[in-house]
Amino acid sequence: MNEKEIIARRVAQELKHGDLVNLGIGLPTMVASYLPADSGISFQSENGIIGMSALPDPALAGTNLTDAGGMPIGAFPGACAFDSAMSFALIRGGHLDVTVLGGLQVDEGGQLANWMVPGKMVPGMGGAMDLVTGAKRVIVAMTHTAKGAAKIIKKCTLPLTSVRRVDLVVTEMAVIKPTEEGLVLLEIAPALTVDQVIAATEATLLMPKAPGVMNLAV
Amino acid sequence: MNEKEIIARRVAQELKHGDLVNLGIGLPTMVASYLPADSGISFQSENGIIGMSALPDPALAGTNLTDAGGMPIGAFPGACAFDSAMSFALIRGGHLDVTVLGGLQVDEGGQLANWMVPGKMVPGMGGAMDLVTGAKRVIVAMTHTAKGAAKIIKKCTLPLTSVRRVDLVVTEMAVIKPTEEGLVLLEIAPALTVDQVIAATEATLLMPKAPGVMNLAV
Amino acid sequence: MSKVSTVEAAVQKIPDGATLMIGGFMGAGTPPNLMDELVRQGKKDLTIIANDTARPGTGIGKLIDAGLVKKVITSHIGTNAQTQKLMIAGELDVDLVPQGTLAERIRAGGAGLGGVLTPTGVGTTAADGKHTVEIDGRIFLVEQAIKADFALIAARTSDYSGNLRYLLTSRNFNPLMALAADLVIAEPDEIVPIGCIEPDAVATPHVLVDMIVVKGADA
Amino acid sequence: MSKVSTVEAAVQKIPDGATLMIGGFMGAGTPPNLMDELVRQGKKDLTIIANDTARPGTGIGKLIDAGLVKKVITSHIGTNAQTQKLMIAGELDVDLVPQGTLAERIRAGGAGLGGVLTPTGVGTTAADGKHTVEIDGRIFLVEQAIKADFALIAARTSDYSGNLRYLLTSRNFNPLMALAADLVIAEPDEIVPIGCIEPDAVATPHVLVDMIVVKGADA
């Protein structure tokens, strides 16, 4: 099981029947692979559809049904399509139950930076600022470190995506819950020790009770 | 030809091929009767349709296609339906070419009062404030006086509908154009004298050139 | 977990004193059985947000007739003499809002916006007590978002999951209100299987609808 | 007075230096022949308002490749290395706007609103230079309406009068932009007789559409 698979499997367990969920491009999109077909979860793509599915057949690839990365997708029966204003009304208006996004940094305040590295990479915020501001629950799905450097740090040095405190951070090493008091270490990956997680983390991790072990069952 | 017919016939001549027009309930609605079938004019009803027509047959009266007064209407081929936010986006956004509304008072500044008489009648502004603020052209279609009292006056005493100067006032006696300088008397009804119009008007009427005669041909 | 409910059970969720958005324009597009059931269950002290109060005996007018309403936020009451009478007698609080502004305030509430800037009403009594903002020399009113505890909406068709489509002018405020309330109760003319409404024809996505009422079914 | 035009004649209406809203999301729902014709006619110094610049060789990316663009107001350029390169080199002015805010600013421009109040971007660099408003203890950014000289939009179907419907995710910004430009040019996949699109399926009313382009017709 590689890092991304660990993260995706663990995030999948956070999604509940009836949830409307947005999955960011990249790693978060893998989450859908670890849900049962009858999960009762609806996926929204911010370019304008609820009920997106994987492309059922490569021969069906077209330009009228794509994900937010422009890649061809499919749709389940009962899907609905809408314009970008409606899509973000759903996102900003509190109708989106969960968003799962990647991250560059998360800090002790639970704040996320994930849309630019000044002087190096300026992709733009796309829908990320609206998603983090508006979703009922924000889950950051990211690798614990980047080339050995900590991504869970005391204070974000990159531009913030939102001042809103995210709800959960899932990495291949740990599950961390930002709270008013700080970052609480809820779970660690199987075969890891708490000390290993702490060593890979710049931020202080609170442990009001002993961390559990990440459940990676599908 | 009664007062209302005179007004409706004259207003009809202001509408051009391709115009999107909103007609207020009551007298303004009569305007549509004096247009040829191939006028190329589209009518919007603010409750959510462009392409409204008269009800083609009383047997077709239902509750899913009504005008802003709740009365059953019909629709022409090419009609389109939308919600109230879109309807007022069209009205407020400058997409509506002409609105024809009734009036209680118009003053020398060209300002209109038409939605309430404090202590007597408080129907509410409905869509009138948006229509007068947003339409490209506002035509007030009203009787020249009310029970002998002037309605075209120096300064509105009733609450304003908008601070916007209306574009034209059509009564059974005259056609008046509000301008920056004041109210210009453009036309008078056949068989009337300018003095008769002045006598029925409290506001000062400007006559930079001699008024013409209202054309009431259909 | 079906969203389908009887009219009776859905209305039982509504407590006295609740704030209700109710779709419709002069009765067209107002959910008829939900209105009758509100009257039958005798709710009290309701605050109603709606375009109008229709006429006595019609649509929202039935709630006025039955004395269920404490306050109305609306654009027009000119067709309902009873609403005007109660207002003048001080028995009903009426907050008049320009129609386009009402639509945008509801939409803003549902879209997570704090409000909108509109030119409508500037310099009139509709601007009383409102903040203004100047942009490029033009003045706009700051019109704040509005939300409700419940939205009672009518639709032509619902599928089993609550995807809704509307018909002609009975659409009006219904899709806006479906965005802006904590609990959304839809009364469609018909309920069809999932997949019967093509994705582009869905005006209200199912995720916004909490209950779908059917008339006469015994749950 | 038909609205139907060749792609060539429609694009000839666009002067150098014009501001264009262009529909589409990563190329999906971007009018393909209008893009090619802008390149063929070699327009200069365009300001583009669009969700993204797609990829090199795709959709709006073609305009970037050809060096037609002076400024982009957009939510995302991460998929177009050429856009980023030109921006870093100071040859292209890029104004980044959160996607939901961009949608609302365009809609506001088309709806006659001065702007909207949004919580998105508060406390971030997206708030730089923006006014804020506090409502009930919450802070919102004042995001101003935006308009354009031209809107270039794609649709699935147009009728002869310009009533438009869209298909699935190629709808995106197109109906919003149809509201917000002085001249709206629509490129549908097909043009059908009036009456072929039922009233409730029309997403963009014909009154908003000025020109309907067909590929290859000689006007």
List keywords for this structure.
heterotetramer; A: 218 residues; alpha/beta; Glutaconate Coenzyme A-transferase; 3-stranded mixed sheet; 4 helices; C: alpha/beta; 3-stranded antiparallel sheet
Structural class of the helix and strand makeup of chain A? alpha/beta
Low-pLDDT residue intervals, each spanning 5 or more residues of chain A: none
Chain-averaged pLDDT of chain A: 95
Estimated radius of gyration of chain A: 17 Å
Identify the CATH class of chain A.
Alpha Beta
In percent, how helical is the residue content of chain A? 10-25%
Termini Cα gap of chain C: 13 Å
CATH superfamily of chain A: Glutaconate Coenzyme A-transferase
Describe the global form of chain C: globular
What is the H level of CATH, i.e. the homologous superfamily of chain C? Glutaconate Coenzyme A-transferase
Radius of gyration of chain C: 17 Å
Main interface by residue count: A-D, 40 and 51 residues
Mean pLDDT of chain C, nearest integer? 96
CATH fold field value of chain C? Glutaconate Coenzyme A-transferase
CATH class of chain C: Alpha Beta
CATH architecture of chain A: 3-Layer(aba) Sandwich
State the end-to-end distance of chain A: 13 Å
pLDDT < 50 stretches of chain C: none
As an assembly, this protein is: heterotetramer
- The number of distinct helices of chain C, counting runs of at least 4 residues, comes to 6
- Determine the number of helices of chain A (DSSP H or I, runs of at least 4 residues): 4
